[in-house]
Write a structure and sequence with these properties.
The structure holds 2 protein chains of 2 kinds. Chain A has one domain (4-124). Helices cover 76% and strands 0% of the residues of chain A. Chain A has 4 helices and no strands. In chain A, helix 1 (4-23) packs parallel to helix 3 (66-88) and helix 3 (66-88) packs antiparallel against helix 4. The radius of gyration of chain A is 15 Å and the shape is elongated. The two termini of chain A are 28 Å apart. By secondary structure, chain B is an alpha+beta fold. Helices cover 30% and strands 26% of the residues of chain B. In chain B, strand 10 and strand 11 form a beta hairpin. The chains are: A mainly alpha, B alpha+beta. Chain A binds chain B through residues 32-34, 36, 38-41, 43-45, 48-49, 52, 56, 85, 88-97, 100, 104, 107-108, 111-112, 114-115, 118-119, 121-122, 125, and chain B through 2-3, 6-7, 9-10, 13-14, 17-18, 20-22, 314-316, 318-320, 323-328, 338, 341-342, 345, 350-352, 354-355, 368, 371-372, 375.
């Protein structure tokens, strides 16, 4: 049931989001601590948007597998998040940070997968 | 037309999903600081240091290391105050026979919004008093004991006349003046590192000191104990305003009212709580200085292997003010949970490794459990099961 493409696309989306945040942390995201998507409200919105987009893309590719692809995308985003968090420095609340991040990653990719499935069905009709 | 409507529906769903993830309830955002407020500047030459007679940061730090404070009063009442890992206090008041008279709790987070202190006194009779703390009163374990004892002697929570703040204590309206300090027979401070101090009240009669002077009158005798063995003593002679201390091998000396005249005399009225903390301070700061050359911690230079490891894992040990890795929530009521967790970690020397090295320190685990409980409860300090009595 592993769909590597979905895993990699969502993981790449999270990584790209983090790289953009690192490059424009002060200017776009008004960040005052280290670049990390949960350290700034704008960064949260940006990351969610990219993950929704990634979820929609992998889901729209095959609407019959939307749920499986959405779940794989969530796992990919979560894996990328944990790796990046380990690199930037987890801090003394890191399990709670991972729990928060997981909720956001799963919700975003799930919403994206749902949207992709819906778009596919809509275009078909 | 249907196709357009369906597309519009999915667009709405996407926007709703994004909004649901990024939206913060008003309760979470209410504590955010208002921007644009004017900066208050202090005029040149204005004294901004410590205020004589007011407790300073060092005193509060010393007090924060106290784990348990036991006060015995002349009428046989005993008050035992303990500090929880969440920063809250509880005092248990018992009578001469050991029967519980009442309990007094100081909850720094229980109020709506998480910023006020909530005081709760429950008497043996079952009657209870809930009150908000006074802004000018910074609760300590000694204050909690004094307040609990005072409430008990004022007749408990059932006072029909109501309560008022008087000299930093909640008193029954119309109650007569009471000097709780004078009714204190003994105060036992249990501190970190196996240290404790017990101060008892006594009296001196023509006690010869320095072959020149005899000391008389009220006396506070403080005995410093480490791991069950007495290692020092300090005496305060109230009438003569003289402090004498001797911790063999560490420090010995005296301070008289004459010497203090240079500084405008004793800036406060010494009491048993101060004497206990002062005796601990003599020992703690002097031994820290002798050991390290300075009171602040001095760490040896790390080895090369350690330096490489630090390069890799240094951020793991980092601790920032607020919610590390979740600074998005710094302006919300959840900030309280992070601050309590930070204080708990600092107090017990924990780091982020304590999360997975759970076998190394149960105290660190309690800090973590407290943080999870606090987050799950939405930062209200009551946990996720409030108002259920769990």
């Amino acid at each position: 049931m592993i769909r590597w493409t979905s895993v990699l696309v969502a993981g790449a989306a999270f990584t790209v989001a983090h790289l953009v945040q690192t490059l424009a942390w002060q200017t776009w995201f008004h960040g005052s601590y280290d670049p990390w998507f949960l350290n700034s409200g704008r960064a949260v919105v940006f990351t969610v948007a990219l993950l929704v987009f990634a979820g929609a893309i992998v889901s729209a590719a095959d609407w019959r597998e939307s749920i499986v692809r959405g779940a794989n995308a969530a796992a990919g985003a979560l894996a990328a998040m944990i790796i990046i968090l380990a690199v930037v420095g987890p801090g003394n609340l890191f399990p709670i940070v991972i729990a928060f991040g997981a909720v956001i990653a799963v919700t975003s990719t799930g919403a994206g997968a749902l949207a992709g499935w819906g778009m596919h069905r809509t275009m078909k009709t | 037309m249907m196709a357009i409507l369906r597309r519009a529906l999915w667009l709405v769903l996407i926007v709703a999903a994004v909004g649901a993830v990024t939206w913060r309830p008003p309760a979470l955002a209410e504590a955010q600081a208002q921007s644009g407020a004017a900066v208050r500047t202090a005029p040149a030459g204005h004294r901004v240091g410590a205020t004589p007679g007011k407790k300073g940061a060092t005193d509060y730090w010393l007090e924060s290391q106290t784990t348990r404070l036991t006060a015995k009063y002349n009428d046989g009442t005993t008050a035992v105050a303990g500090r929880g890992t969440d920063g809250n206090f509880e005092t248990k008041l018992s009578d001469r026979a050991g029967g519980e008279v009442g309990r007094f709790t100081v909850n720094r987070a229980a109020a709506d919004g998480g910023t006020d202190t909530v005081l709760h006194y429950a008497a043996r009779s079952g009657e209870a008093l809930y009150a908000y703390g006074e802004a000018n009163v910074r609760p300590t374990l000694a204050w909690a004991n004094t307040q609990a004892y005072s409430l008990s002697k004022d007749g408990g929570p059932a006072a029909a006349s109501g309560f008022e703040w008087r000299n930093g204590l909640m008193r029954r309206r119309g109650a007569g003046a009471r000097d709780v300090e004078q009714q204190l027979a003994e105060l036992h401070t249990e501190w970190s590192g196996g240290l404790s101090v017990r101060t008892a009240r006594g009296s001196a009669v023509n006690l010869q000191w320095n072959d020149r002077r005899s000391l008389n009158g009220e006396l506070l005798v403080s005995r410093l104990v480490r791991d069950g063995v007495q290692i020092g003593e300090a005496n305060w002679f109230a009438k003569e305003q003289v402090l004498i201390w001797n911790i063999p091998g560490v420090t010995a000396g005296s301070l008289t009212a004459e010497q203090m005249k240079t500084y405008g005399g004793w800036p406060f009225k010494p009491d048993a709580e101060w004497l206990n903390l002062q005796t601990l301070a003599f020992y703690h700061f002097k031994t820290a200085k002798d050991r390290q050359g300075a009171v602040a911690a001095r760490t040896p230079p790390p080895s090369r292997t350690r330096q490489v490891l630090d390069l890799l894992v240094a951020p793991v040990q980092a601790n920032e003010p607020g919610c590390d890795g979740l600074h998005w929530l710094d302006g919300t009521v959840l900030r309280f949970c992070c601050d309590v967790h930070d204080r708990c970690y600092e107090k017990y020397g924990c780091s982020s490794r304590s999360w997975w090295q759970f076998w190394s320190s149960w105290t660190c685990d309690l800090c973590n459990v407290g943080a999870v409980f606090c987050f799950a409860g939405g930062g209200n300090g009551k946990g996720p099961f409030h108002p259920f009595p769990l």
